[in-house]
Amino acid sequence: MLAAAGVRKQFGALAALGGVDLDVGPGDAIGIVGPNGAGKTTLLNVLAGTMAPSGGTVSFRGADVTRSSAARRARLGIARAHQVPRPFGAMTVFENCLVGATAGGGLRRRAAYARCLEVLELCGLIELADRRADSLGLLGRKRLELARALATDPVVLLLDEIGAGLTDAEAAELVAMLKALRGEQGLAVVWIEHIVHVLVQVVTRLVCMDAGRVISDGEPAAVMRDARVVDAYLGTAAA
Amino acid sequence: MNEPGTKIQRWTPVSSSFTSGFGLLIVALAFVPVVMGASIVQDLTTLLILVLMAVMWNALAGYGGLVSVGQQAYIGLGAYATVWFALQGVNPYWGMVLATVFCALVSVPLSFIVLRFRGAQFAIGTWVVAEAIGIYVSFDNQLGAGTGTSLSQLDSYASTTREHITYWLTLGMTAFFVLLVFALLRSRLGASLQAIRDDEEAAASVGVSVLGGKRILFILASAGCGAAGAMTVANILFIEPTSIFSVNYSAFMIFMVLVGGLGTFEGPIIGAIILYFIQKQFGNDGTWYLIGLGSSAIVFALLFPRGLWGMLEERTGLRFMPVGYRVKRSASPHEAGP
User: How many domains does chain A have?
Assistant: First the structure.
């Protein structure tokens, strides 16, 4: 459904992505792991449209979207939550979601309001709906980042280390929320995360990257046992 | 999923009575020439032009994040286009309306150039465009070149009639543009425009077409400043390129919006009233007046970054002209805070 084919991204002499293929099917939950500098966030940027690839194509539901802007892709149904939350600070929590629902989801008035209330409820933010977004703490901002992305009524949700900086209890809440989401909405999720034990509670497929390439792709337990993964990722972590 | 009784509130009793009060104020202002003397009518014309400029600059910077130092381009163009239309035999008052439309049209191709820039580049870019237009005009002999020109066609009116028509037209233009901004901010696009102000990239990532939103604001502000320029020539009758294309206009706009409250709907109007009284009181003190204006703008930027209205809004939660949304959960025991 959302597919990257032979995607390359060059930063000067550095090949951040050296020909990556990734296929996301409807309702898939894919985790992406890999050591720092493996190209995970770059891949997410290329999928979301915030970065144009140096080569290769990105397609969504059969159409080539390689040259489409991030805004256009958001309207098509590709939503993205940033690693460092980027709320619209001077607007309320509700208004933040409303931007997603109207601009990204193409919803109007009552339908948009209903969608926002629904995602705020789901993300545990409904009590804070009228708060200015810049008055939220880190967990609140992360929830809002997710709620705003969900308000666009996405088909695929791209998550960039949304678990980072959270306590175990907070991470557990996040996992519960994502599970509920996937159950209810049949949403496909692509999730980059360093905290692997949190990740495997949600994902059904794991992709391991190293030095701009996919080195292993498959069922989580199998990928974790893969010798190349142990070398590239767990090997370094254990050192 | 959401409890019954959850409502989205846009009007509060305070804001709806204030907004209707605002409407009544416009109507009341229309009767000023009938009951008040000439000097008050002229003063109010000046004040209304300031309000229009402040509201337009705020639309650009406060909502689009577009900090322009070149809005004098449209003030000058609006004024000179009025003179040009009058030279072609158009009634000068109709010429002012046409000049406003002309400024909007000119800004469309210009937007493709300057909106490619961001931040400081945009500020400098708009200034360069303004200077270029000013220089171009100062070489046009038909428009009086560097020595300036006057809107002599207005001499055919008796001076009281002229002042009254100018006042009414200024009131109409200012009310039109202020209400247009209000309607725009309350529309479906309003939330997206505020999102662009807060974080462009994040706005794009949830589907906002950032460039489109900015272009709407840019054209709107160009038309509004064009109207302000047309009103200015009607009010002072004589213009010359260096003063009507002066960067001081942008400085005044920045002052009004910073002091009143950047990105608030009500703030710039307050800022305009403050600048008007300062100008009236100290306007003849030359350099010291400008030093005073500059330093108070700096003090406000440092100590009260949200301006007077922003502070008031924060302390009291009051919103007189509601462009936002409140979630009202009557079924819930927890009332969400302001």
Answer: 1
Q: Is residue A202 part of a domain?
A: yes
Burial B233-263 (b: 16+ CB within 10 A, else e): bbbbeebbbebbbbeebbbbbbbbbbbbbbb
- pLDDT 10s digits, B236-262: 888 888 889 989 899 999 999 999 988
Q: Which helix (H) or strand (E) holds B229?
A: helix B210-236
Using a CB-CB cut-off of 8 Å, the residues of chain A touching B8 are: 94, 113
CATH code of domain B29-321? 1.10.3470
Closest by CA position to B266, among listed B192, B196, B187, B320 = B320
Rounded CA-CA distance A81/A68 in Å is 18
Q: Which residues contact A167 (CB under 8 A, 6 or more apart)?
A: none
**Which residue among B198, B204, B324 places its CB closest to the CB of A71?**
B204
Strands A63-64, B238-239: pairing kind: unpaired
What's residue A155's pLDDT? 92
* CB-based contact, A224 to chain B, within 8 Å: no
In a domain, A223, yes or no: yes
3-state secondary structure of B191: helix
CB B91 within 8 A of CB B83: no
What ipTM score was computed for the predicted complex, to two decimals? 0.87
| Mean pLDDT calculated for residue range A176-203 | 84
Interface contact B326-A95, CB threshold 8 A: no
Kindly list the residues from chain B whose CB atom is less than 8 angstroms away from the CB atom of residue A70: 201, 204-205
Domain contains A214: yes
Q: B158 or B331: whose pLDDT is higher?
A: B158
Supply the CATH number for residue A16's domain. Answer: 3.40.50.300
B205–A82 C-beta distance less than 8 A:
yes
Domain spans of chain B?
A: 29-321
Q: Using an 8 Å Cβ cutoff, are A19 and A194 in contact? A: no
Are the Cβ atoms of A128 and B336 closer than 8 angstroms? yes
Q: Nearest CB to B336: which of A88, A102, A130?
A: A130
Question: In this structure, is residue A64 part of a structural domain?
Answer: yes
Largest CA distance in chain B: 73
Q: Do A131 and B326 touch (CB under 8 A)?
A: no
Q: Contact B1/A122, CB-based, under 8 Å?
A: yes
Domain that holds residue A45: 1-77+158-166+186-239
